[in-house]
Design a protein that fits this description.
The protein has 372 residues and is an all-alpha fold. The chain has two domains: 8-269, no CATH class; 276-371. It is built from 15 helices and two strands. The longest helix has 35 residues, at 301-335.
């Protein structure tokens, strides 16, 4: 089978920037050294680029998980050009196709089933799906955003201005242009590229399938640390309209914190989250599935499987009762004075259901822990 034509511009960009980062930066560090201001600037620019992709390109524009003030959208648009990962319109269109056709080699732009190299960077080195390059029918909503279209129209100029202009201006101000171009320019760009690319590659290979096994996406706390929270990818692929990826308070997701923090500043609004009961049911369904697979070789498999199913059904029933009561309680709190609600029979029922759910959860955990 004949391979598609090589995209020489992409090959040149990735190769040249990598060589400067891998060879010139260490040589400069050994012969000249980098000071604290240069390292700090490189780190800040790396964070700016990364968050522009995760909070802007990904969660704002690709998935519409929240709305943002024009000033924040402009910052993300400039940061996206700085990250050099194509325009908002093109990136978001590709990403929507990825979610719609995940793991389908003929349609998913960076299908993980094509292997690590392909999903990480190979898909950008050849014209595998040239028909996609100018077709943005799946992003018509974004074409109504003037900032998106401004960035798309002037993308080349903006990338040059950001990737050359920012390191150059900092270098002139700081007094060391070469070090600034190497550290803030080349090294920062390469790190920005590959940490983002890890989401297409490693996050579909390495980690846990916490909520679904219908696609290759994985949850990985280590990757989340390097990708501003995007490592909780299994959750994201089943609940893609949630502005959070790490939904637990202890999960590292600075993109979530940024979006929520900006809400307090009136820069973001209409933050979307997934219903807690649906999230919990998806997690429990995966635990049940894994436990059932482990029990197949058990000497008393039939009896154990029956008990496991009974515990699961009982837990789901109590879960439904608990969330129904909570939904009703919240509705009543909106319609009545809080003091009246707290004295109502509904609150007593809610507390009782909460205790029953906790007891059933303990029983479930004890049973599944034995099978772990």
């Amino acid at each position: 089978m004949k391979k598609p034509p090589i995209i020489w511009l992409n090959v040149a960009v990735f190769l040249i920037t990598f060589l400067f980062a891998a060879v010139a930066v260490p040589y400069r560090a050994f012969t000249h050294g980098f000071d604290g201001a240069e390292i700090t600037m490189a780190v800040l620019c790396f964070i700016y680029c990364g968050m522009s992709i995760t909070a802007g390109y990904h969660r704002l524009w690709s998935h519409k998980t929240y709305q943002a003030h024009w000033s924040l959208r402009l910052l993300f648009a400039l940061g996206g050009a700085f990250a050099l990962q194509n325009s908002i319109l093109h990136w978001s269109s590709d990403h929507r196709i990825h979610h719609k056709h995940v793991d389908k080699n003929d349609k998913d732009p960076y299908s993980a089933k094509m292997g690590f190299w392909y999903s990480h960077i190979g898909w950008m080195l050849r014209e595998y799906q040239a028909h996609r390059y100018a077709n943005y029918d799946n992003a018509r909503d974004l074409q109504k955003d003037p900032i998106v279209m401004w960035q798309h129209k002037h993308y080349l100029l903006l990338t040059i201005a950001m990737n050359v202009g920012v390191p150059l201006l900092f270098g002139l101000w700081h007094g060391d242009v070469i070090s600034s171009l190497l550290l803030v320019g080349f090294l920062r760009l390469v790190l920005s590229h590959h940490t983002t690319f890890f989401i297409n590659s490693l996050a579909h290979i390495w980690g846990k399938q916490t909520y679904t096994d219908k696609n290759t996406a994985r949850d990985n706390g280590v990757l989340a640390f390097f990708t501003f929270g995007e490592g909780y990818h299994n959750y994201h692929h089943i609940f893609e309209n949630d502005y959070r990826n790490g939904i637990r308070w202890w999960q590292f997701d600075p993109t979530k914190w940024l979006i929520k923090g900006c809400e307090w500043l009136k820069l973001t609004s209409k933050l979307r989250t997934s219903p807690e009961d649906k999230v919990e049911k998806a997690r429990l369904a995966m635990i049940l599935k894994r436990s059932q697979l482990k029990l197949k070789s058990h000497p008393e498999a039939e009896l154990m499987l029956e008990r496991l199913q009974q515990e699961y059904d009982a837990l789901i029933a109590k879960l439904n009762d608990f969330y129904a009561a909570r939904k009703q309680l919240l509705a009543n709190k909106r319609d009545q004075l809080l003091a009246d609600v707290e004295k109502s029979e509904l609150v007593k029922q809610y507390k009782e259901l909460k205790l029953r759910l906790a007891e059933q959860q303990r029983s479930w955990h004890l049973l599944t822990a034995k099978l772990a």
